[in-house]
Amino acid sequence: MALINDVIGKTLLPKFERPALRSGGIKAVESIAKQELAPGTRLAALARKLLADVQDTAYTHVPVFDPAHGILKCDCSELINYIVQQVNPKALEHLPTDAGHPFTRAHNFEEFFAQLPGVGKPSSEAWRKVEKASHLAPGDVVAWKNAAYVPGKGQTGHVMLVADKPRPVHVDGLLTGFDVPVIDSTSHGHGLGDLRNAERNGLGKGTIFIPTDVQGLPTGFQWESSVTPSPTAIRPNTLAFGRLTALTVKKA
Predict the structure, then answer these.
(1) Residue 135 sits in which domain range?
(2) To the nearest whole number, what is the mean pLDDT of the chain?
(3) I need a labelling partner for 92 at 20 to 30 A (CA). Which of 69, 86, 115, 129 fits?
(4) HSE-up of 207 (CA within 13 Å, CB side)?
């Protein structure tokens, strides 16, 4: 799999200077990526830095990453690919891609995470599956696959980075699921508290709701938080969570 900087520099945007070659703001991004922190913590810190510094953002399938000038334009999967590359480029090599697509897309993430061993179990992968919404931590990746996706038509799903610890939601004293703060790139926001709308889209932070069963396992995905008035319908449970656990990847 080609590194995202190479794809941006050579294939998608041949006239665009690669982000890794820029000076100024990119150094702050690189310093976060190299800090002595757990991999997932680095992913979350980098996402927060990009969000704090962004001045020009948009949801688009033709990515532009220029953190030195506060420019970030991409779709949801391109954002996650970019952030992972800054922290651990080799981790991208374990992620699947579709033929003709340079980036791992939402449904690729979901299918890959779903078949992984859980956190704490041995594996040759740099990634582990997070089983329960309550176990999600900042820097984990939430991937939802659009079960109705037809190759070449429409969206494959959505992928997000967990920004903060999930908050339990109770109804009549019973746990019904978790509100999960996320950072992502999207064409519209996640409802209440999300500033993105029809006029302003792209990189931002919002909250989704993940309903769970009595065992704490996810049963679906709601685009908005549990407190958003008139939320959209719960989407099918084609949902998987992943955690980057290794900075040095050893292939089996």
Answers:
(1) 4-244
(2) 85
(3) 69
(4) 19
Beta bridge partners, 174, equal 171
- For residue 49, being part of any structural domain is answered with yes
Pairing of strands 141-145, 127-130: unpaired
| 249 belongs to a structural domain | no
Whether the pLDDT of residue 26 is over 90: the answer is no
For 66, other C-beta atoms within 10 Å of its C-beta total 19
Helix (H, G, I), strand (E, B) or coil at 221: strand
pLDDT at 7: 42
Confirm if 103 and 80 have CB atoms less than 8 A apart: no
Q: pLDDT tens across 150-201, in order? A: 887 778 999 999 999 999 999 999 999 999 999 999 999 999 889 887 778 9
CA 117, 120, 126, 131: dihedral to nearest 10 degrees? 50
